[in-house]
Amino acid sequence: MTYISDLKRIMQLDDQVYEDLAQRNRLLHYSTLHVILLGLLYGVTAVLLSRRLLSFQGADSAGDFNALFLIMMGVAVAFLVHGGAALFTWVFCRGIGGSPLFMPLYLSSGVAAAAAWPLAPLVVLMQSGAHNYLIYAIGLALSVFLFAVEFVAVRKATGLNKLRMTIAAVATFIYMGCFLYLWL
Fold first, then answer.
1. With contact defined as beta carbons under 8 Å apart, do 41 and 112 qualify?
2. Are 30 and 11 in contact, with CB atoms under 8 Å apart?
3. So what's the pLDDT on residue 111?
4. Mean pLDDT, to the nearest integer, of 23-51?
5. 0.85 cut: is pTM over it?
6. Is 59 left (phi over 0), alpha (psi -120 to 50) or beta?
7. At a CB cut-off of 8 Å and minimum separation 6, what does 114 contact?
8. In Å, what is the CA distance from 38 to each residue of 47, 71, 116, 119?
9. Where are the domains of the chain?
């Protein structure tokens, strides 16, 4: 199997792809690659929209900024968000009877992060003050697709049935939503 065919299977919600990747020792490679690419997409978009983003946030947009620093911060933030989301998800899945192992869930959710690639530029657009209903609608549709891809990946990694996985996903979604609401 090639990388492109594996990526296609991930996007088609094929849960068997994660087992195949584990057997071929590709989960770590794909997970790392997908999260790095997600961070690079976010960082490069932030650089391209940096003047608008900085002016929207009230900073002096005429000042100099380090483009490489912004890009690398995007990668760091992607890994931080991925790790935090995987940990929250693991806690709720484990609490409802899922696998006690963290790494399979972490790696599978990292592989599924490829579904977030088109969402990264939209997030930067929204952060830069672009208030357009089309952007919101596309962002919502891409978020639902990302949720579906992550659901399949996490379900396969934890061994939960559909009902238990749905309960764990709803609990995680509510908790993370409240956490983000309080944080922002």
1. no
2. no
3. 98
4. 93
5. yes
6. beta
7. 7, 10, 11, 34, 37, 38, 149
8. 14, 11, 7, 9
9. 15-183
